[in-house]
């Protein structure tokens, strides 16, 4: 069970503005730049991000696969992330279920298990809306 929606609302208003100040520069973090499905408004959501072989990324779905940012990225076919001081275009998003957490570092795996997170968004390097 991912983190509760009430915590997500709190994080959107309080924690995310603080986290955005460093998430685009630190390893293991990124800012997902995505557009709302209905409004077209640009959003910037801090996430845990892990580089995959071939240049893609794996994003931990700490609020589950139904989080608004996940739905936006899936609907648009990709997003841009800001990580380690650079912008990376990503496409071909897909939700993957990995209860063993094989794709993330051991320390992160332990934390994600504590909060019962076993879903991830996997994306390939490439323009949003285009395959790889």
| Shape estimate | globular
State the total count of DSSP E strands: 6
Which sheet architecture does the biggest sheet show? 6 strands, antiparallel, barrel
> Hey, roughly how much beta strand do the residues contain?
25-35%
Query: How would you spell out the order of helices and strands?
Result: HEEEHEEHE
CATH class: Mainly Beta
What is the CATH superfamily label? Answer: Electron Transport, Fmn-binding Protein, Chain A
CA-to-CA gap between the ends? 30 Å
Give the neighbour order of strands across the main sheet: 1-2-3-6-5-4
Structural Rg: 14 Å
| CATH domain fold name | Pnp Oxidase, Chain A
Can you give a write-up of this model?
The protein has 132 residues and is an alpha+beta fold. It has a single domain, classed as Pnp Oxidase, Chain A (Roll). Helix content is 28%, strand content 35%. It has helices spanning 5-23, 68-76, 106-114; strands at residues 29-35, 42-51, 57-60, 78-83, 86-97, 119-125. A 6-stranded antiparallel beta barrel has the order 1-2-3-6-5-4. A hairpin with a 5-residue loop joins β2 and β3. The longest helix has 19 residues, at 5-23. The model has no long low-confidence stretch (mean pLDDT 86).
Descriptors:
132 residues, alpha+beta, Pnp Oxidase, Chain A, 6-stranded antiparallel beta barrel, 6 strands, 28% helix, globular
Please outline what is shown here.
With 132 residues, this protein is α+β, with helices and mostly antiparallel strands. Helix content is 28%, strand content 35%. The protein has a single domain (5-125), classed as Pnp Oxidase, Chain A.
């Amino acid at each position: 069970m991912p983190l509760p929606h009430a915590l997500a609302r709190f994080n959107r208003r309080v924690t995310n503005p603080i986290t955005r100040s460093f998430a685009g520069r630190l390893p293991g973090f990124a800012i997902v730049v995505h557009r709302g499905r209905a409004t077209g408004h640009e959003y910037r959501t801090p996430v845990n991000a892990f580089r995959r072989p071939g240049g893609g990324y794996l994003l931990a779905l700490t609020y589950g696969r139904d989080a608004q940012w996940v739905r936006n990225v899936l609907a648009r076919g990709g997003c841009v992330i800001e990580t380690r001081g650079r912008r990376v275009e990503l496409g071909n998003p897909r939700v993957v279920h990995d209860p063993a957490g094989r794709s993330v570092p051991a320390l992160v795996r332990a934390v994600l298990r504590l909060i019962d997170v076993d879903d991830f968004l996997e994306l390939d390097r490439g323009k949003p809306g285009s395959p790889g």
